[in-house]
């Protein structure tokens, strides 16, 4: 019952934040006019129109596939390289400058290079996502591996703890607590970069829809596509990453639970 109440309060707080944002959005629309800032009802009307003509679902599928494919590649490669760099000082010193350089290059530059190398299409968008998100995943994994408590390793040596138990009970909880925040940040970057790449490099997807809205001066349509991107990000984060984080960090679920007397 207690966990149900806490869950309800958590959802209630999130809903309050959403309603506050919608209220501010409506106030801005009334203040500046629907042409400069269409209100929520205008965006919803455009969204319904996109859904009726089938454009919405085609765009959602294309953008989701590109964003999640690029994110998955970047997460796997970035975490693997970050763990190696965190455990090996030599490898870390070699890869850190590369990560810094990759992180410093703006996404628009990667899009231009991707267009030159791969031409327009999905590959350019996926490559841009990988190039911009892999340094984020790398940094989180590297810091997690580098800050491992060596006293736990010494204790494991003294008590002859099996390696599998050390990995699961000592090392993994610490590393995961750094990796998941980095992955959540990388996921947000992946969606934004995907839409930006689609704006220049593809003929379908949410970004392409925003490009068409810009050409036709359809401000309400542009706002509708922005709402779609935000919803997709929230679904990916709270429908995939957050549940996975809860499974990987079960010790956080007992936080606040009363200890038996």
From TrEMBL:
Organism lineage: Bacteria, Pseudomonadati, Pseudomonadota, Gammaproteobacteria, Pseudomonadales
Keyword Transmembrane on entry: yes
Keyword annotations of the record: Cell membrane, Membrane, Transmembrane, Transmembrane helix, Transport
Highest taxon of the lineage: Bacteria
ABC transmembrane type-1 domain segment(s): 60-238
Chain ranges passing through the membrane: 9-28, 65-86, 98-118, 124-145, 170-191, 222-241
Subcellular location(s) per record: Cell membrane
Protein name: ABC transporter permease
Transferase is among the record's keywords: no
Species per Swiss-Prot/TrEMBL record: Marinobacter alkaliphilus
Family stated for the protein in its record: Belongs to the binding-protein-dependent transport system permease family.
Membrane topology designation: Multi-pass membrane protein
InterPro entries in UniProt: MetI-like (IPR000515), MetI-like_sf (IPR035906)
